[in-house]
Structures are given as structure tokens and as C-alpha cells.
Amino acid sequence: MTAPALSAVALDGLPEVAAGADLAALLAAALPADLAAGDVLCVAHKVVSKAEGRVRALDAIDPGERALALAAEHDKDPRVVQAVLDESVAVVRAGHGVLICETRHGLVCANAGVDRSNTAADGELILLPADPDGSARALRAGIAAARGVAPAVVISDSFGRAWRMGQTDVAIGAAGIVAVDDWRGRRDSHGRELRATAIAVADAVAGAADLVRAKDAAQPAVLVRGLDRFVTAEDGPGAAVLRRPPADDLFR
User: Fold this and answer.
1) Single pTM value for the model
2) Which domains does the chain carry?
3) What was the pLDDT predicted at 183?
4) In this predicted model, which residue has the larger pLDDT, 62 or 116?
5) How many Å apart are CA 202 and CA 239, to the nearest integer?
6) With b meaning 16 or more CB within 10 Å and e meaning fewer, what string describes 157-180?
7) Which of 118, 142, 154, 209 has the most other CB atoms within 10 Å of its CB?
């Protein structure tokens, strides 16, 4: 039996993307000739957001009273704080210059995913896609139409972790992949029943992709191979299944 192997390769050749760009067509052109149905394409959310026009100009933001108060308390630009509040349903925690927010998607992350890095111009903010799972499905369909092959698609963003230093990429959108491989009820190698093990496959893909995509290299897409067993013909429920329900969250 051949030992399992995993590879991750950043794609070159993608141009700077602006609102209205056909990102699926650009990705389809950048993917290798031997693209296979068992491949997984991991795309950084910022290029998706840019193509979808999810960008705000700081000069066009008029901060309200709450934004002004939070900005003064946490030494932040009130316009940025207002953009964060506009993307949030709740501020979960605030401190150390960071607002931990629950986004309208149900994600809990720093500053509701609002970011100033890798913008095409000064004075811009990049927001998360309005519907990351929908974006993943659309990219998958567009690539399939252009190439006749439908790889799984993961849309990623960098998240911090409550118990760990540093950041790693996680999946905020997905299509065509088993996002969580639930082993509960199955047996380990010694026959013991597993009661808690559920592997965050899509998050692991996002983290692996981030390791080969330099933050300053303008390589927003990574092709991951060797995960055929997790790729599905159907788009599936997406990355939404990775969000912990509030009732099960011990920290809220």
C-alpha cells in the first residue's frame, strides 16, 4: 500500500484583483493542466473580497458615538472601529487594541475580520465576504465551467486562538470538502470507541496552505493535493459546520 502524501503549492500568475473581476476564470487559468477532481484549492479571503467589492474607503466612514468611545478606550482609528461594528452583531471582548467580535456570519474573530493589510490603496479596508460558503460554491462552479473539473474550494482567513500564541489560517468558506471528519462512534487502532474526536479538515487545509503562501508574495491561492478522500461531488454544508454553537461555547 502506498503511504499517504500531502502537497501544497502556491499558484503564480494571479494579477491584482479589483471589484468585478472574474476570480474563478483567473484561478482556472492559473491552475495546472493536470487539475484533478480530488484537488483542493485554498484561496485567501482578501482576493475574494476584492473581487466581490467588499472594500470600504476610510474617508467615507462617519463614526458614531459608540465607535468614538471604543476607539478612545482602545487607541484605535474610530473609522476602523465603525467598520468593525458595522460587520458585527456583538463585541464579545475588547482589550490590547483588539475587538473580538461575532460577525454577521457567526464567526468570532478579531475586529470582525476587517483588515487594512494587502489593500490596493491607502485608506482602504477589506471586509470578509458577505457569504463565504456561497463564494466558495461560486468559485467551484466557475472553475468547473472553465476547466471541466470541480476541485474542492476552501476560503481562508487568519485567526488567533484563545489558548495559543500566533495566528493560523482557518476555513471561513468551503465547497466540495468534508469540513469536519467526525470520528465519534468509530474505533481507534486498538478498538476503543472514540467519543470526542472530530478532525477540522478544512481548517487544517487552510493552515497547511498558509505555510507555503508568504504574506508578501501576492500568492492568494494554494493547490493542495492528497486529500481525495475528503473531496465530495456535492458542495455540502460548507465551513458553517465548523462554527461552535453559542450554547456549547464555554467562553461566552
Assistant:
1) 0.93
2) 1-52+129-243 (3.30.1330.100), 55-128 (3.90.1660.10)
3) 66
4) 62
5) 7
6) bbbeeeeeeeebbbbbbbbbbbbb
7) 154
